[in-house]
Amino acid sequence: MGSDSASVSSMRSTFSVLSPIRPQDVRNRYSRLFTISTKRLDFFFPGSYKATTWNMQGEKGLPANLDDLLLPTDSEFAQDFYIIGVQEGCPDRREWETRLQETLGPYYVMLYAASHGVLYLTVFVRRDLIWFCSEVEHATVTTRIISQIKTKGAVGIAFTFFGTSFLFITSHFTSGDAKVYERILDYNKIVEALALPKGLPDTNPYRSTPSDVTTRFDQVFWFGDFNFRLSKDRVDVESIVSHIVGGNMGPLMEHDQLSKEMADGSIFKGFHEAPVHFLPTYKFDIGCDIYDTTSKQRTPSYTDRILYKSRQADEIKVVKYSSCTSIKSSDHRPVVGVFQVKLRPGRDNIPLGAGQFDRCLYLEGIRRRITRELKRRDAMKSQSSSTICVIS
After folding, report:
1. Cα–Cα distance for residue pair 332/87, rounded to 1 Å
2. Which segments cross the bilayer (predicted)?
3. Distances in Å between the alpha carbon of 19 and those of 15, 118, 195, 260, 374?
4. End-to-end CA, the chain
5. pLDDT the model gives residue 246
6. If we measure between CA atoms, which residue out of 209, 208, 211 comes closest to residue 192?
7. Hey, what CATH topology would domain 42-357 get?
8. Which of 15-19, 255-259, 312-316, 368-372 has the highest mean pLDDT?
9. Where are the domains of the chain?
């Protein structure tokens, strides 16, 4: 294909050009992997992760372009991992995954994907790093009284990268302005019932508890439509928004239900959230930047959030936390977070994934990418030809 902007950005990463491997290194590859020093690991693989959460509102039509969501122009480098969680996902989950692969291009592969009804969770990894990932496990929890209705609940994906264990959860909590208690019940059910890890060894069992899945992993990222609202009348919220200066959302966050419950210790114990410098992501009229104009006149709120938790302090660094305002096909705006995570050396008791990924999805995504590029070039040629004047 030559090169395009996404591929070039991806390959500019500090670990995109791998060092040559000598024959004796190949023989000792796995033993060397497990004895690599922490200092060298930090130098070569700081670990960068982009988490995205988006309530798609069940729309059949996907945005024409997902570049702004995954590969925005204000990012200097592409990331090692892309983890995308959606709620009320589009009916064709396979089409959604193919579009993600098409956007990320040939240097990324889909490590794993799981779903629970219309909750989708997808993990993409840089192709040259897949060999250092363990086998992947997933589990689901429903928070509906009727378990067959899979619109509320959680999906979790767990794996180990080098010697650091990760848990990614996307969830959709109970809706309704006043249903704070019900959302706390949703959280409690998920942390107690999400059955992970299954076969993967716990990297630090002495700090794990059987009643909380988030204690059984080194790094946890939990994102989704938590449905917590701003406890303020819409007129008051709009007045605050109109007086916001320089991205200071403090006056709004003072009324945020989730922030209050986290401060009280009733939910997301041990989790953190980066400072919020973006406008409420719910509820918009489709296709525009105007908040709900229906008869319900819903109050703008921060329903879509990304939280993180680490067993050790200061092992997760927040690089970016924002919303994607250019995607307007849903009544929610996607929220994205970019993180750097410190990694531990590998261990010889961790079952490696043997480089497995969805090859069929990869080929279809790249085929579409090539087709799109060829059409773009043909259009440019046609446009160029139409501007040439011939004088006889």
Report:
1. 10
2. 107-125, 154-173
3. 9, 42, 39, 49, 33
4. 38
5. 86
6. 211
7. Deoxyribonuclease I; Chain A (3.60.10)
8. 255-259
9. 42-357
* Mean pLDDT, range 155-161, rounded to an integer: 97
Q: How far apart are CA 298 and CA 252, in angstroms?
A: 16
Q: What is the mean pLDDT of residues 206-226?
A: 96
Q: Which tops the pLDDT comparison, 194 or 73? A: 194
Contact criterion met (CB below 8 Å) for 135 and 159:
yes
Query: For residue 235, what are its two tokens?
Result: 């007129």
In the numeric block, which tokens belong to residue 95?
């089409």
Q: How far apart are CA 220 and CA 140, in angstroms?
A: 16
Residue type at position 366: I
Cβ proximity of 243 and 254 under 8 Å: no
Residue with tokens 């605050």: 240
Residue environment code for 351-374, b if the CB has 16+ CB neighbours within 10 A, otherwise e: ebbeeebbeebbebbeeebeeeee
Q: Inform me whether the pLDDT recorded for 97 exceeds 90.
A: yes
Q: Scanning the structure block, which residue is given the tokens 């939990």? A: 222
Beta-carbon contacts of 52 under 8 Å, excluding residues fewer than 6 positions away, are: 69, 70, 82, 83, 84, 85, 223, 334, 335, 336, 337
Question: Residues 144-154: what's their mean pLDDT?
Answer: 76
Among all chains, which residue has been given the structure tokens 């130098």?
A: 43
